[in-house]
Specification:
This protein has six helices and two strands, in the order ααααααββ. By secondary structure, the protein is an all-alpha fold. α4 crosses α5.
Length: 162
């Protein structure tokens, strides 16, 4: 009898630990970014936001950033009463869609690649072992005195502008 109670207690604890996992977030991510079914992003499922493959428990840096953006945007939009469904946003409410977009320019996992670049290259934005190929920066030219000359357009002007 004691083993049965202990077994049930362990099962209940395991179930409660996974209760924080939100499979609807995986669905939302897939609606926003539409990863191919064979891609690493699609297969990652819960690891998009969690440290564990099964979800629940500790969020990875991307999941933490997404959680913060979601909470902030939810508070901002509550008074505006956003539409609950919109096909232009993959069927997501305004604040949900905005939360995914809000974290795109961040580098959640600190690997020097912004989240949008990692997603575009089928890398996991919350796992620092999943590193994107970074775009090469233009090399500075040397002047006659040996100083580096900034790329065309200068530091504060886009290339090709006067």
């Amino acid at each position: 009898m004691g083993r049965l109670v202990l077994g049930l207690a362990v099962l209940l604890a395991l179930w409660a630990a996974g209760a924080g996992a939100r499979p609807e977030y995986v669905t939302q991510f897939r609606r926003v970014y539409r990863p191919d079914r064979r891609s690493e992003l699609y297969k990652a499922s819960c690891m998009l936001c969690h440290e564990s493959k099964r979800g629940g428990g500790k969020l990875n840096p991307y999941g933490e950033d997404l959680r913060k953006a979601s909470r902030r945007l939810t508070r901002e939009y509550k008074s505006k009463k956003p539409p609950k469904w919109d096909p232009e946003r993959g069927g997501l409410g305004l604040y949900q869609y905005a939360a995914y977009r809000a974290v795109e320019k961040l580098d959640s996992d600190g690997d020097k690649g912004e989240n949008w670049l990692e997603i575009k290259q089928d890398k996991l934005p919350g796992q620092n072992w999943s590193v994107p190929k970074l775009p090469k920066k233009p090399k500075a030219e040397a002047t006659e005195k040996g100083e580096e000359k900034p790329p065309e357009g200068g530091a504060d002007k886009p290339a090709g502008t006067q």
